[in-house]
Write a structure and sequence with these properties.
The chain is of the alpha+beta class and 444 residues long. It is built from 17 helices and twelve strands.
Length: 444
C-alpha cells in the first residue's frame, strides 16, 4: 500500500493543508517518500515528488495521464484553452500556437520588454523622490500584463485598466484554489465567494473579448499569437475558430503568462534583498557586461550569474508549485501500484526541496546552477515549467523576460526591503508573497 499520513476523521489532511500547505507537503514527502497517499475528505490523492516518478508520469508514460477532475473548476476560467485541454485538441492547439514562441519571435520581443520596463522605472520616480516604497511585486504584475498584451496579442491597455484587470485576476486566482482543493464536491455546490468570482471573471472577459473584437476589425497578419488564432483553420472542415475558442486560448495565455513571470520576479527581488552578497555579485556582473545600458538579446548569454539567480529563485518558489494529473489506467511507480483513476499532485516545490538532490535545500544559493553542480543531479529534479510534451509553451519567453527585467532594474536601483516587512507566502494556484515586495529604491 502506498504510504501516507492518517489525517483526521472525515476531513483527512485538509486542516493541515489549510494551515501550511507547502510546509505540510514537504514534510509528508520527507517522512513518507516520493509517492505519498493523502486523504482530502472523501477523496484520495497522491503527492508525487520523486524525480524518477515525475519523469515517468510526464514523459515516459504521459499517454496514461490527463489533467483530470481536479482541474475541472479551472475550466470555468480558461474553458478549453491550451492549459486545460487534453488529447487531440491539445495537440492541435500546441502545434498552432508554438510558432508564436519560436526563437525568432522571441528576439523581436526584447525591444518591447525593455521599452515597458524603462517606462515603469520612470513611473517610479515620483515615489522615489517622495521616499515612499515601491511594491515591486505589484509593479512586476503591471509590467508583465503590458508585455504579454503587446508581444502576444499586439495591443495595449491604459494604466488604470491594467489595475482593474489585476484586481479582478486576484479574485479569480483566490477562488481557483478553493475550486481545486474541493474538486471532490459537485460543481453545483456553491463555494464561498462564488458570486464575487463570477463578477471578477466578467471583468477579465470584457477585456479579452474587446481585444478579439478589435482585432477582427483589422485582421492583417501581424505575426503574433492572436493573428495565428484568428487565421487558423480546421484541417478537415476549413472553418475558423469561433470567438469562444479564441477567448479560451487568449484567457489561458494571458492569465498564466503574466501571473507566473510576475510572481517569479517578485520572489527574486525578495531573495536578493535578503542576500546582499549575492545582490552585489549580480550588480558586478551587470556593470561589467552592460555598463549601464539596457540589455540586448546578444548580452543575455553573457549574464551567466543573472540566469543562475533566476534559476535558484524558481527552484525555491516555482510560480505554479503544483501540477495535477489523473491516471487513465493502473500504473507502477517504483515498488508502488497506482490504481486507475488516481488523482495526482505533482509538486516541483516539493521536489526542489528534496535533500537527496539539493543539499541544504531551503537556502538561496545560485551557484547550485554552475555547470558542475547541475551535472550532479537528474534533470527531472528541477522542473519549474513542467516536463515533456506539456512543458509550458511560454517557458523561454518567461526566462527571457526575467533576465531583461532583472538586468534593467538591478543595475539602476539599490533596493532595500521596508522595515518591519513580514514575508507570508500566499498560494492561490500561483505562489507569490501575500504582502507584496515593498522596497525603498535609490538610483545608483
Amino acid at each position: 500500500m502506498i504510504p501516507g499520513p492518517r489525517g483526521y476523521p472525515l476531513v483527512g489532511v485538509i486542516p493541515s493543508l489549510a494551515r501550511d500547505p507547502f510546509g505540510y507537503l514537504v514534510g509528508a514527502a520527507r517522512n513518507y517518500g516520493g509517492l505519498v497517499r493523502l486523504r482530502l475528505g472523501p477523496a484520495t490523492v497522491y503527492l508525487v515528488s520523486d524525480p524518477a516518478y515525475v519523469r515517468h508520469i510526464l514523459v515516459d508514460n504521459h499517454v496514461n495521464y490527463w489533467k483530470g477532475p481536479i482541474l475541472r473548476g479551472i475550466k470555468l476560467i480558461i474553458g478549453d484553452g491550451l492549459f486545460g485541454s487534453d488529447g487531440q485538441l491539445w495537440q492541435q492547439q500546441r502545434r498552432l500556437m508554438s510558432p508564436a514562441f519560436h526563437r525568432r519571435r522571441l528576439t523581436e520581443m526584447v525591444g518591447v520588454m525593455t521599452d515597458v520596463v524603462e517606462a515603469a522605472t520612470v513611473r517610479w520616480n515620483d515615489r522615489i523622490a517622495r521616499k515612499t516604497p515601491v511594491d515591486l511585486l505589484e509593479e512586476m504584475v503591471r509590467i508583465n500584463i503590458e508585455i504579454v498584451l503587446r508581444t502576444l496579442f499586439g495591443t495595449s491597455i491604459d494604466y488604470c485598466e491594467i489595475g482593474r484587470l489585476r484586481a479582478a485576476s486576484d479574485i479569480i486566482f483566490h477562488h481557483s484554489e478553493k475550486l481545486v482543493f474541493s474538486f471532490f464536491l459537485p460543481m453545483r455546490v456553491p463555494r464561498p465567494g462564488h458570486r464575487r468570482f463570477l463578477a471578477a471573471l466578467s471583468v477579465v472577459d470584457e477585456v479579452v473579448e474587446r481585444i478579439i473584437a478589435e482585432r477582427r476589425k483589422d485582421p492583417a497578419d501581424r505575426g503574433d499569437l492572436l493573428t495565428m488564432l484568428l487565421l487558423a483553420r480546421d484541417e478537415g472542415s476549413g472553418t475558423a475558430m469561433d470567438d469562444r475558442q479564441v477567448r479560451d486560448e487568449v484567457m489561458s495565455i494571458l492569465m498564466a503568462g503574466y501571473e507566473s513571470t510576475a510572481a517569479a520576479l517578485g520572489w527574486t527581488w525578495y531573495l536578493l534583498s535578503q542576500h546582499p552578497d549575492t545582490d552585489s555579485r549580480l550588480r558586478t556582473e551587470l556593470d561589467s557586461v552592460l555598463g549601464g545600458r539596457v540589455p540586448s538579446l546578444q548580452d543575455l548569454p553573457r549574464l551567466i550569474f543573472t540566469r543562475q539567480v533566476i534559476s535558484e529563485s524558481l527552484r525555491l518558489y516555482p510560480p505554479f508549485p503544483t501540477f495535477f494529473r489523473t491516471s487513465h489506467g493502473s500504473d507502477r511507480l517504483g515498488p508502488h501500484n497506482l490504481p486507475p483513476g488516481a488523482a495526482l499532485i505533482i509538486s516541483p516545490y516539493v521536489t526542489h526541496r528534496m535533500t537527496a538532490h539539493w543539499p541544504n535545500p531551503d537556502a538561496f544559493d545560485p551557484t547550485r546552477f554552475d555547470a558542475d553542480h547541475t551535472a550532479e543531479r537528474p534533470s527531472e529534479a528541477y522542473y519549474p515549467f513542467g516536463l515533456g510534451q506539456r512543458l509550458c509553451i511560454g517557458a523561454n519567453l518567461s526566462l527571457l523576460e526575467q533576465q531583461v527585467v532583472v538586468a534593467t532594474v538591478a543595475q539602476r536601483f539599490d533596493r532595500e526591503l521596508v522595515s518591519g516587512y513580514v514575508l507570508e507566502p500566499n498560494y492561490d494556484i500561483a505562489l507569490r508573497p501575500r504582502n507584496g515586495v515593498p522596497m525603498m529604491l535609490t538610483p545608483r
